[in-house]
Design goal:
Elements lengths: L19 H13 L5 E7 L9 H6 L4 E7 L6 H13 L3 E4 L11 H8 L1 H9 L7 E7 L5 H9 L17 E4 L4 E5 L11 H9 L10 H15 L1 H8 L20 H16 L11 H13 L13
Parallel strand pairs: 1-2, 1-4, 2-3, 4-6
Antiparallel strand pairs: 5-6
Length: 310
């Protein structure tokens, strides 16, 4: 992300979020793709676009594709349905799941089989009836991939030996007689073309908070809430966005205008209402920002989807 001046005295530092282990994980996936029939990518239903790794599209060329909209309980239900149709219209097989409760998880076998129907039929004509489909499971960090695998596999979760890949540290997991999964580490990609994508990924905790400025994240989140979920601010913090004034005795910088200025005013009000004060009654924007972000991540703001298809 480039530097911006969203709040008084704060600048967004450039994010260094692509460590060496992710590059190694991507290389491992590239080496393994020849063993795979279908790539199953787990997306966070709150950010179905931002959590979709463009590197996976390149990696999975020529393979069947399944997308799982995970953490559906935390996302706006109507908007999740729109995203499902959006990706289906692009040729993906899509399923809505909640890995924590198991909702929709077991049906993944059926979705994988539908995606691979052409291969299944081809094998059948060759007399191959008992070969399980091999699926690579992929997703960005904190998309719920491990929780999904544990829920999907259940007590049947076992490593399967005598397979290419096992000897070089990859883990094959037998789900049932029809499907085997190749687990992969969560990876991001080297460059965000849109700064908002980076912020969205940061909101769900996929980037280390230590390399971010919470104030910038909070302001972006407030702008989304003002536009799409204004009642959330009223219900959680007793802030009516229609009555927020940005003329607060110079508390907002003169060069910050419009939407950013109003978002900053709301952040100051959240800080005031939550007792985030420094000496001299100055509002602690950092503390207020962390409260807002934590409220989003712990679903205290309700079911929120941060983006929609254009």
């Amino acid at each position: 992300m480039s530097k911006t001046d969203n709040t008084k005295g704060y600048e967004t530092k450039t994010i260094n979020w692509y460590p060496g282990h992710m590059a190694k994980a991507k290389k491992m996936m590239q080496e393994s793709i020849k063993l795979i029939d279908v790539v199953v990518e787990i997306l966070d239903a709150r950010i179905p676009l931002s959590s979709k790794n463009p590197d996976i599209d390149e990696l999975a060329k020529g393979k069947y594709r399944v997308l799982l909209l995970n953490k559906s309980d935390m996302a706006d239900e109507k908007k999740t349905a729109i995203w499902k149709k959006y990706y289906e219209d692009k040729g993906f097989f899509v399923s809505i799941v909640n890995s924590k409760t198991g909702a929709g998880v077991k049906a993944t076998t059926e979705v994988i089989q539908k995606a691979c129907q052409e291969k299944i039929e081809r094998d059948r004509k060759k007399g191959i009836l008992a070969r399980p489909l091999r699926a690579m499971i992929a997703g960005i960090p904190n998309s719920g991939k491990s929780t999904f695998i544990n829920s999907f596999a259940g007590k049947a979760c076992t490593k399967t030996g005598n397979k290419p890949g096992v000897t070089i540290g990859k883990q094959w997991i037998r789900i049932n007689k029809n499907v085997e999964l190749l687990d992969t580490p969560g990876i991001l990609w080297p460059k965000f073309e849109d700064q908002k994508i980076g912020l969205h990924i940061a909101f769900i905790g996929s980037i280390n908070d230590d390399i971010l400025y919470p104030e910038d994240m909070a302001l972006e989140l407030i702008k989304i809430l003002m536009k799409d979920y204004p009642l959330v601010l009223k219900e959680r913090y007793d802030i009516d966005v229609t009555t927020v004034s940005t003329d607060k005795n110079g508390s907002s910088d003169a060069d910050i205008s419009g939407e950013n200025e109003k978002a900053l005013a709301i952040l100051e009000m959240i800080g005031q209402k939550r007792g985030c004060l420094k000496k001299g009654a100055e509002i602690d924007l950092l503390k207020a920002s962390k409260i807002l972000i934590d409220d989003f991540r712990t679903q205290k703001l309700g079911r929120i989807t941060l983006e929609m298809p254009e």
